[in-house]
């Protein structure tokens, strides 16, 4: 027994080649993984969808529990109506509670996809009906009140005590913060990367913070905030930082920037230039090693050398200087070992 057998058993008319079938509004097409498999009467569509959802949560059914039942009802100027079923792998699904199925042992959990949830009536388990009319009663319920929020929104503690737009602002600011975004810095070659030097775990947190293990990737530093109103420093949209706290490293970050030198650029230079420093060149010996590469941990100021190459044909040398006025520190040097004789990148 298959999904097609179940659909035929509940009233679907099988699609035959070169046979015309009635379309909306009298009947709706039924598609399984993008292929038209039949048609269904418009008046029976709601009953068929409810029957498929009951079979989804049943353990002894041939219907897979991750089947996406995308029922698009008839509408004026909306999405083309029909029953769209999806069983392909690697689809986004999430659990909700099917309250139309009486169950006391937790067998009412149904996994739904992003396509079908747009046309479903899902209520929040906060005691209210969300302004829903009696014409369209809720058939499903979220597992928890915070399930309607995104992952970033769930990281905000006491969001129900904030003004609603402020919660949305925080969702954007949480993604813009200079955080501890990764652990494998020595294996990355990002053009520019911001990294918080002294991250801290938050004093208060939500369940989502612990669930996703965000202590391994902290996104900020705890701070004591003093509000001095009326006679104090009551500047709008500004703040005054404690000088000693800043000197101790509060909110201090680093910018990791990757400088790539490819000696194979250009057909005329291929195989001619190599990384090397002349032994007689004492002016840059304190900045560049004999292999032409900088010392790890070397402090480089503006317009100071950090790399040297020599042309094997013309015996001319080229020194690469640090651009910009800010100080830089060489954290690590990575080489491309495709060329076994001489390094080219």
Automatic annotation (TrEMBL):
Its EC number is 2.7.7.6. One of its GO terms (cellular component) is DNA-directed RNA polymerase complex. The keyword Cell inner membrane does not apply. Keywords: DNA-directed RNA polymerase, Nucleotidyltransferase, Transcription, Transferase. One of its GO terms (molecular function) is DNA binding. One of its GO terms (biological process) is DNA-templated transcription. Residues 37-94 form the DNA-directed RNA polymerase I subunit RPA2 domain. The keyword Transferase applies. It comes from the Eukaryota. Residues 152-328 form the DNA-directed RNA polymerase subunit 2 hybrid-binding domain. Belongs to the RNA polymerase beta chain family. This is DNA-directed RNA polymerase. It comes from Gossypium harknessii.
């Amino acid at each position: 027994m298959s999904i097609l057998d179940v659909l035929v058993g509940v009233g679907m008319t099988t699609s035959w080649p070169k046979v015309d079938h009635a379309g909306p509004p009298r009947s709706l097409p039924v598609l399984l993984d993008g292929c038209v498999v039949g048609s269904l009467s418009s008046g029976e569509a709601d009953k068929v969808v409810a029957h498929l959802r009951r079979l989804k949560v049943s353990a002894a059914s041939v219907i897979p529990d991750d089947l996406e039942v995308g029922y698009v009802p008839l509408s004026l100027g909306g999405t083309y109506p029909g029953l769209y079923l999806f069983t392909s792998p690697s689809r986004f699904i999430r659990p909700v509670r099917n309250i139309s199925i009486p169950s006391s042992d937790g067998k009412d959990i149904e996994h739904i996809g992003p396509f079908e949830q747009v046309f479903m009536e899902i209520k929040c388990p906060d005691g209210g009906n969300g302004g829903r009319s009696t014409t369209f009663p809720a058939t499903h319920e979220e597992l928890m009140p915070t399930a309607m929020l995104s992952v970033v929104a769930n990281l905000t503690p006491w969001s129900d005590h904030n003004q609603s737009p402020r919660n949305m602002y925080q969702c954007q600011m949480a993604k813009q913060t200079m955080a501890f975004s990764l652990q494998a810095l020595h294996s990355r070659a990002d053009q520019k990367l911001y990294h918080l030097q002294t991250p801290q775990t938050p004093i208060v947190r939500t369940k989502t913070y612990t669930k996703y293990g965000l202590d391994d990737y902290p996104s900020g530093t705890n701070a004591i905030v003093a509000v001095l109103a009326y006679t104090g420093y009551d500047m709008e949209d500004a703040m005054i930082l404690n000088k000693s706290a800043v000197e101790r490293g509060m909110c201090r970050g680093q910018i990791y920037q990757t400088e790539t030198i490819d000696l194979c650029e250009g057909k005329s230079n291929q195989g001619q230039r190599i990384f090397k420093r002349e032994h007689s060149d004492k002016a840059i010996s304190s900045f560049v090693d004999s292999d032409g590469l900088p010392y790890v941990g070397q402090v480089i100021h503006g317009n100071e050398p950090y790399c040297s190459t020599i042309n094997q044909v013309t015996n001319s040398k080229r020194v690469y200087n640090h651009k910009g006025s800010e100080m830089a520190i060489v954290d690590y040097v990575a080489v491309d070992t495709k060329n076994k004789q001489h390094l080219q990148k």
